[in-house]
Amino acid sequence: MRTLGQKRAAFALEKVTTISCDNPKEFKTFSAGAPSMILQNGFGQALAFWYAKGGQNQRDKHRVLLDILQEWLCLCNGDVRNRFIPPCTTPREMVTALAAMSQDQYLAAQKEALALLEWIKRYANALLKGK
Predict the structure, then answer these.
(1) By residue range, what is the domain housing residue 46?
(2) CATH at residue 106
(3) Where is the major localization of this protein (predicted)?
(4) Which residue, among 75, 7, 66, 4, has the nearest Cα to 37 in the 3D structure?
(5) Quick one: 86 exposed, middle or buried, by C-beta within 10 A (0-12, 13-18, 19+)?
(6) What whole-number distance in Å separates Cα of residue 21 and Cα of residue 74?
(7) What is the per-residue pLDDT for 78?
(8) Distance between CA 60 and CA 21 in Å, rounded?
(9) Which residues 6+ apart lie within 8 Å of 37 measured at CB?
(10) What is the mean pLDDT of residues 109-126?
């Protein structure tokens, strides 16, 4: 049986090792600052900003990180049963779901996103050095 922390770490490792970003080095820098951006500006505001910056470019660093968060926060696969946000397939749906949540649900989703971002930051720093 794996803990949520182990599942989170494994997910982050898989995403960082298979990252399909225009510039992995920029992703590394961006992911390092993402948690502080959330804490300074608010969870929903940070995600909306990333959505605006990344747009439809699936390889933009903002969009890549947003897609990783979206997938993790509603992932139900194998022994992972995350229900931090309702199932969604697009960043727009995720931002809409966040706006409709209660404060407790919103804070739980933010806390989980910050925990995942910590792993992404660590793995990106370790694995994306040469790229």
Answers:
(1) 4-127
(2) 1.10.520.30
(3) cytoplasm
(4) 66
(5) middle
(6) 22
(7) 87
(8) 6
(9) 46, 49
(10) 97
